[in-house]
Amino acid sequence: MKVSVIGSGNMGSAFVKQLTAAGHSVAVSSRNAASAEKLAKAHKAKAVALAKAGEADVIILATGAADAAAALKGAGDLNGKVVVDITNPLTADYMGLTLGHSTSSAEEIARAVPGVKLVKAFNTVFAQLLDAGADLGKGGKVSVFVASDDADAKAKVTELAASMGFAVTDAGPLKNARYLEPLAGLNIYLGYGAGRGTAISPAWVQAA
Ligand SMILES: NC(=O)c1ccc[n+]([C@@H]2O[C@H](COP(=O)([O-])OP(=O)(O)OC[C@H]3O[C@@H](n4cnc5c(N)ncnc54)[C@H](OP(=O)(O)O)[C@@H]3O)[C@@H](O)[C@H]2O)c1
């Protein structure tokens, strides 16, 4: 698949690594062109200007929540494009969320950039775990929860996540980002607040 990653920070870097390893054709853009170039060089990806970031089958938005809408608006014509929102609207100390209950970061982004097929995914996976890869050993896989109002977009992102080895859970419509963002909040509490570290990730169990 032709995949574009916007952002070259913790998550952007891990995505470029895993996507290229899975054989996808990856373009990366960032506010800092030099950092996108360096990242691209390290992983056989290509660095592109933000204005060209929309030229892909799937666009992964890996900026902070506050920068997300502005970044997308600078990414060229995104009408009908599949965009993956991985953001968590965190407070400055990372221990709370700045919005929720009646909306979510995903819904705010969808409202700010109408016309994109927005998919919430990967927001519950720490960058360190994404960088390490989906394989937990003994057959275990890291889970990715995927929420969207567009069935085709959800299917495409499910295929993309599975191609990198993740177990995918269909988390329903985009408004379920109202659940997924607090779930990431709990993960951050457990990882940093409770000291369990970043090699943890939420998953669902089911009795036989
Ligand atoms: N870190 C995690 O473990 C984790 C896990 C799950 C979800 N998330 C979510 O993933 C997102 C990224 O997190 P991160 O830790 O990777 O953040 P980060 O390291 O701060 O990286 C953010 C990247 O976005 C770029 N950026 C910001 N505004 C931009 C714009 N207008 N156009 C292009 N690029 C822009 C930044 O460029 P500059 O370097 O120039 O500022 C930087 O490369 C956040 O929303 C976070 O909540 C993070």
What are the salient characteristics of this protein?
208 residues; eight-stranded mixed sheet; Rossmann fold; alpha/beta; binds NADP nicotinamide-adenine-dinucleotide phosphate; 36% helix
What does it look like?
With 208 residues, the protein is an alpha/beta fold. It has a single domain, classed as Rossmann fold (3-Layer(aba) Sandwich), CATH 3.40.50. It has 7 helices and 10 strands. It has helices at 10-21, 33-42, 65-73, 105-112, 127-132, 151-163, 177-193; strands at 2-6, 25-29, 46-47, 58-61, 82-85, 117-120, 135-137, 140-141, 143-148, 167-170. It has an 8-stranded mixed sheet with strand order 3-2-1-4-5-6-9-10, with helices on both faces. Strands 7-8 form a two-stranded antiparallel sheet. The protein is globular and about 45 Å long. The structure holds NADP nicotinamide-adenine-dinucleotide phosphate. Residues 6-12, 30-32, 35, 50, 62-65, 67, 70-71, 86-88, 90, 123, 125-127 line the site of NADP nicotinamide-adenine-dinucleotide phosphate.
